[in-house]
From TrEMBL, chain A:
Part of the ABC transporter complex GltIJKL involved in glutamate and aspartate uptake. Probably responsible for the translocation of the substrate across the membrane. The complex is composed of two ATP-binding proteins (GltL), two transmembrane proteins (GltJ and GltK) and a solute-binding protein (GltI). Keywords: Amino-acid transport, Cell membrane, Membrane, Transmembrane, Transmembrane helix, Transport. PANTHER family: L-CYSTINE TRANSPORT SYSTEM PERMEASE PROTEIN TCYL, MEMBRANE COMPONENT OF AMINO ACID ABC TRANSPORTER. Belongs to the binding-protein-dependent transport system permease family. HisMQ subfamily. This is Glutamate/aspartate import permease protein GltK. Pfam families: BPD_transp_1 (PF00528). Residues 74-277 form the ABC transmembrane type-1 domain. It comes from Rhizobium loti. The lineage of its organism: Bacteria, Pseudomonadati, Pseudomonadota, Alphaproteobacteria, Hyphomicrobiales.
TrEMBL record, chain B:
PANTHER family: AMINO ACID IMPORT ATP-BINDING PROTEIN (PTHR43166), L-CYSTINE IMPORT ATP-BINDING PROTEIN TCYN (PTHR43166:SF35). Pfam families: ABC_tran (PF00005). InterPro entries: AAA+_ATPase (IPR003593), ABC_ATPase_HisP-typ (IPR030679), ABC_transporter-like_ATP-bd (IPR003439), ABC_transporter-like_CS (IPR017871), MetN_ABC_transporter-like (IPR050086), P-loop_NTPase (IPR027417). It comes from the Bacteria. Keywords: ATP-binding, Cell membrane, Membrane, Nucleotide-binding, Transport. The keyword ATP-binding applies. This is Amino acid ABC transporter ATP-binding protein (PAAT family). SUPFAM superfamilies: P-loop containing nucleoside triphosphate hydrolases. The keyword Phosphoprotein does not apply. One of its GO terms (cellular component) is plasma membrane. Signal peptide: none annotated. It is found in: Cell membrane.
Amino acid sequence: MGVAHPTEIRIEPGVAEAVSRLTVVPQRRYGIWVGTALALFLAFLIIRAFASNPAFAWPTVVGYLLHPSVMRGLGNTLMLTAVIMILAIVVGTVIAIMRVSPSPVLRSFAGLYVWFFRGVPALIQLIFWFNLSLLVREVSLTIPFVGTLFSVRTNDFMTPFFSAVVALSLCEAGYMAEIIRAGIKSVPSGQAEAASALGMPYRLILKRITLPQAMRFVLPPTGNEAINLLKMTSLVTFIAVDDLFYSAQSIYARTFETIPLLIVVAFWYLAVVSVMSVGQHFLERHFGRSDTRRDPMTMRFLRNFISLRGISR
Amino acid sequence: MSDVKDENRARFGVPADSMVFARGVRKSYGPLEVLKGVDLDVPVGSVACIIGPSGSGKSTFLRCINHLEKLSAGILLVDSQFVGYDLRDDKLYEVKDDLLCQRRAETGMLFQSFNLFSHMTVMENLIEAPMQVRRIPPDQAKAEAEILLRRVGLLDKVDRYPRELSGGQQQRVAIARAMAMKPKVLLFDEPTSALDPELVGEVLQVMRDLAESGMTMVVVTHEIGFAREIGDQLVFMDGGVIIERGAPREMIANPVSPRTREFLSRVL
């Protein structure tokens, strides 16, 4: 004989009352309490040290925050970062496209490029380009039967600023190439296949289908690279480019107010990085738009609101 | 243009009403031969359905038709013309990319996984190739796209992104996208295999409408019912060759080859 299957379950009033009387007691997490207390205590110590130690010389910090040569240095740092990042993205895209090309020669060339420029420390590349004149005395373009079109001494154009741009762009392009290649690889192959079945030529597929979709994967690491690059430009101090760090250095070399000026420098780097992070967030949202449903903000707000109400009850 | 077609017809014995003409098509990947001599005729306005076990080479053959795969041997003509070559003095010269693309655009292709451009809305998916490849002005491209979307019953989804649509809706958009290039022939590579069972019907209905409107179609499918109802010819492939071909109803009812019989008994 089989088990009788009830067609309806009736809840007795007594049972319902017993269920509703139950309350949940959250688990006690003593480790978190101890950790919180320690963190607060540590924060107190640090803030007290910052506030009470006269060597920080906060009035001096404030005095130098908007100092004209600090401002000029900040301007140069921002310009270097922007110019290098743009060049690195352009060169990196070309190298990345070469790395996914059908030609083994192009692929190997791009592979060697990435291997070299990622492998050699940026500082060494920087000093190398700055000293290019030791290797090449002058650059000239000579065409047979026409003669020399132009000839420039290397030292005349390899200014500190120009060598900084060349060295760091080539170096950064190595990283960007890898990021963009990974982005291209992340686009499902069916996308390019469908495009070519529609009669789109290779370069059009790259431009209209593959690269735009790769953007979504490329953007977050590119934001990180831009932030890293901003800080990496402080290396140009070594070849006497007048950047943020160099300008601070040249002040404290005279006045010996080392710590306050380092704080000024750190403040500006942090400020720019914060602005860049916000910008990155909005860019990601723009390029991820086909990922999310319509009105993502409204939907998310509603969902959170509802779940909050659910918990508080 | 028609000179070339006439010449090919005379030379290779292509029937006057031929849309797809394949003779001795072979395709190898290194030592692995996937197609071992396939012959096929698909007349204008007819529907050919290709069935067979996976690995039988049917998808590869389909991809040879629009030159997504190059043949290792044999010839394949679409509308009495080579897709990827120009024939001069017994030599097949590979054509330049731009010309290849123009010719490939005359054959539409549908995929198992739809492959709608995921960063574009439905409308953008439909107007992309007409505008970029055929240089059709935006207004005209949009107007034509709307007609096609109405035809597949998805005019209300113009501004949606592919992932907001069901699989069946995505495949219908993909069909509209292929039709936007006004192809001479449509190639379907298992168009309903990735769909939930209850969504298969809507896609087959759109394909049925296309067939009735006189579209030439080559369909690789597992939908035996569709092949029987819509197909003008049924082709059974196995091991890189065509084992049997014929009128769908008769072939399904009385398969001649034991391999066809065995395959049909497993899928019916």
